[in-house]
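Escalation from tier 1.

The customer reports that the assembly of two entities below gives different structure tokens on two consecutive runs. Tier 1 could not reproduce it. I'm attaching the input and our single run for tier 2 to review.
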Amino acid sequence: MTAKNYAENYKGADLLAVAAAREVNDGDIVFAGTGLPMLAIALAQITNAPNAVCIYEAGSIDGRPLDLPASVGDARCATQSSVAAGLTEAFYGQLHSGYVDLAFLGGAEIDKYGNVNTTVVGDYAAPKKRFTGSGGNPDINSFARRTVFIMVQEKRRFKENVDYITSPGWLIPDWPSGEFKPKKEVYGKFFNGGITAVITNMAVFRFDEDGLMYLDTVHPGFTPEQVKDNCEFDLNISRCKGVTEKPTVEEIDLLYNVVDKDGIFLP
Amino acid sequence: MGKINKITLKEAAGLIKDGDMLSFSGFTIWRRPMALIYELVRQGKKDLHLFEVNGGTHTEVLAGAGCVKIWESCWVGHELYGKLGESVARGQVEGSILVEDYSHAQCVARLLAGAYGLPFFPTALSMGTDILNPKYDMLGKAGLRDGSNPKIPLKKYDTIADPMYDMGNILLMPAANANWALIYAQQIGDEGTVRVLAQTYVDVEAIKAADKVIVIAEEIVPDSYLRDDPAMNIAPGYAIDYVVEQPYGAHPTGSQFCYDCDADFIRMFYAASKSADGYKKFADEWIFGVDGFDGYLEKLGANRLLKLKANSVMGYSTTMKRGTR
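Tier 1 run:
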């Protein structure tokens, strides 16, 4: 086996996309959101996971876009899809029925249990600021066997408690009582899995047996302490196993010249 | 033989009353009934109750104009061309719009119940989230769940223990049956058979769930053409109440096999929508400052529309510049 030819010049977003692509197992049925998740699944399909397929929530099932879609409802998502249906098929025919192995999603804020907020800043009943809202984030995250979140690393985003739980992590309120319980208890026999990794511009995080986030690898140029300093909660860095694998020259070439050849997400 | 009830955009908007509940075709910035949306703003509609599976540019055009009182949905923005729904956000923060959040698939469940004539539809998606926090039942807090408005359910949702296979708790989502579904479709037959191209989003469900349906069609074609391939169609003519034939009727949102999203226009609108003043300037120029939708198209110009024109094989524009390369 020849040594990998690692790239020396790449941007933060490139590493994010490559690290995310490496989370895809060959044959995975992947449900992806708009943005970097689209780059990750497209790159994975031409590198490590040629048999992975992609579902977008607007209804394209196993599409084979010739041009990178700019959003999940894009006409480009439907090119060469096996089925071009709608949301009922994507959410109930595919997701609720249990087909989805891996979800790629984003978020504005996250806590140590992997609860994600994409809805408001402040109290929901009198918010200071509104984000876009949930979209399909909590749906996909609640039923996929594994979920990978792609986020920006900032202290104000990696919070002790998020202002609003839009998308469920490992310790979540069980309504109507609101008592916090492990996801497995809340979902009962519907439980399939949950959030398994968070990838940011600084590091890769995973979750331990108790559903608590820990540092898995730091990206080249960062230290575990720097990552810890960019979390409001007390991040476990004791399990850090080293530095995130850099992108290869080939992966960067594919990202810029094949996957996003028009420069839509990677200017 | 069926027959369509063909009307103008002005007549279509005139049918919609202040306070009516509306739902829409499309998905974020694709296939929205924009020509009718602009006309609703021109006619100064008030207190509209939007139920939509997701929001987009059309939501923001209505919200910025002060037409919206209640917004029940899960997401609003302009995808890559504008990351937030600024007017809805402003309305929520200021308290002028009552926002009721559900998850995307919970919204679909509500529409499915409405479409199939059921009072509710079960789902196990998005349990354990603050969407279900009773403190955040905004229509309930506003005293609107007292049964006086037949379009507002008595509860935001309910939970039951699965009585059939003991799967655990599951959510029941109330039906959403709007007064009107405003649908943009690429083709409608002269007897009312409806066809949309590529993804169907929730158009089928929105049509079935609503009391009345207005279709803004890119073109009216012979029904026999659509009936030659019935598996491609989404609704029979008897489900459609009114039809407006309006080329480019979804602009600036996209319409597969007709035209792409007008990214520059949506970016311009998004930038304007960040303040009430900015929105007003946009509306003065593009809604009130033109002579109806024909005037709007004339202002856009043929060259701009041609650049958006979809490649007839690929279904989207292959000539417009999309990114930095």
